[in-house]
Amino acid sequence: MMALVTRRDFLKAGLGGSVLLACAGCVTATADDETEMLSAVASAVLAGVLPASPAQRLAAISETVGGVRRAIAGLSATAQKEVGELFTLLTLAPARRLVAGVSSPWGRAGDEEVSNFLNRWRYSRFALLQGAYAALHDLVLGAWYARPEAWPTIGYPGTPEIF
Amino acid sequence: MGSNVRDLMREGLAAGWSHIDATRLSANLALEADVVIVGSGAGGGVAAELLATEGLKVVIVEEGPLWTTSDFHMREAEAYPNLYQESAARKTADKAINILQGRSVGGSTTVNWTSSFRTPPETLAYWQGMLGLKPLSTEAMAPWFAAMEHRLGVRPWAVEPNENNAILARGARQLGIEARVIPRNVRGCWNIGYCGMGCPTGAKQSMLVTTLPSALAKGATLVSRLRAERLLLDGKQRVVALRGLALQADGIRSGNIEVTIRARHFIVAGGAIGSPALLMRSGVPDPHGLLGQRTFLHPTVVSAGVFKDRVDGYAGAPQSIYSDHFLHQHPIDGPLGFKLETPPLHPVLYATTLQGFGESHAEKMRDFPHAQVIIALVRDGFHPQSRGGRVKLRGDGSPYLDYPLDDVYWEAARRALLAMAEIQFAAGAGRVTPVHEETPGFASWSEAKRGIADLRLKPLLCRVVSAHVMGGCAIGDSPARGVVDHRGRHFQLENLTVCDGSVFPTSIGANPQLSIYGLAARNISLLAAELLGRPTPAIP
Asked: Is A131 on the interface with B (CB under 8 A)?
């Protein structure tokens, strides 16, 4: 339940980021950078369901990011590569500012700034960015609601005990 | 595990049935068979049982893993990566359509929602009249459907529908729209509602608990986690062998270990994306450029209603009520019709399908037990402009489907969103939300009527999903109009049969599993007679 974009597609979308994209191809996001980016996205996407206590909130975000990584590991080789490139792109500071329009580093970006970025991509006239938004939407919400801990908050009683 | 649940596959394997998990091979392997079957879903499963019953040596090749009844825990987090193509995230080229398609032993039959319809008479009439497929009449196909209904326990669901389905029935009745009970392929169903994650009780009569155990018990060999890479051709007329690549431990990437299987006859049943892709990779003759063309999806739009009382859409048989009212409003090749059904509601499936994020999404999720969802499966492939999609290969040989959604489709999608909202309000919904990025939903039918009329219907704004991939190796009455003949026999290669949903020349206009079972039973019976040197059966 995700949509993905490719690096070449970004170029086709005319975003003028060829230098950035060349960079994205020759580097790989470090796990730390990627975790910061995904945590910021998860925090915005999950606003309204995350626990209030800061410690619980951090733990829940961290579990969700882990779930996103497990979900990616189950994708086809092509889709894994595409998501990897999307993540790398987003962790490069120039791309974050120019393509995503997020001026703060991910670690300091607030929910409002990240939500604005997500909505720009969601309603973008470039199918590529719409697809990338959909990928983030599906990955984060899928990882969150796959966790039994999330079920009581939506009144889902969980898997029936039939045996 | 309760003592009254049996796991036929696991019992049989313990008793010595032949199964090779290709990820465990440490060296290349060569096998011989009378018939190789690529794919273990609806087409491959039926073929395997019929041919093994005739005493033929059968090898079944499956790219997905072998998971059996006792492995199914009703958890989305396990089921999607283990049992679906691309973790249930398979997408069309522009990412606008999400495709649910099975990828494990049993194929999509392991994870489908059990709806079992015969090919509609109007679909067969169109094939006969417009496409020249004279032998495939409703009367001629009836005995094959009856045989497979008997084999797989297909009967109209005799239990009360769950509330998610009851609302569809109620709303339709209020509006004078006919809704009927869905026939399901189950025996002793517990009415739990988790069919899409693999049936944990073995009640669903998928290939995993019916034809495949039967074939293995009769000496067939199953090779799982083997990617059918290419058919090796002898000149331009015969297939000599299938070359497969063993998957690595991740079950996704292939490694260097090859399995080569020589046989007299080859059956391709890898689904409507996998089958044309295998033939393309193999360089199979395609003189008229038809291979992989006209791939259909029943592209489906979604409408979510919220009700005062609990719906609990995750509980109970997921699909038990349908309406074909909107398939019959226009000629079959006129404005596109659609079939109305309901999906099961599970947290991940529902959360990822719903539009938006943050507080607005959280608010909708808090209504989860009160949510009711209707889906409209649009019948593609009959209208002259509804030409479906096209299967293509990436540089690494993996397939993808390019399916553009055009104005003919969106016109039908708008009618469908209207029809679903009207039914949901007629059944008492307090709020109805079409799954579309630009609407927060509507509080009344009159509001919805205006709002849906104004919605911008475009790819990636309006959510479109599919669970039915059809076409790409179409049946034709001549090589200029099809890849295979009405028996599924390839027009150019004499020992190749295609036996899955890829042979349909249009969409079916109904959930396709029984259409595949029936046609497979007919065509493999004809093939078996030929392979055994018997007279052709008197097929009506």
From this structure: yes
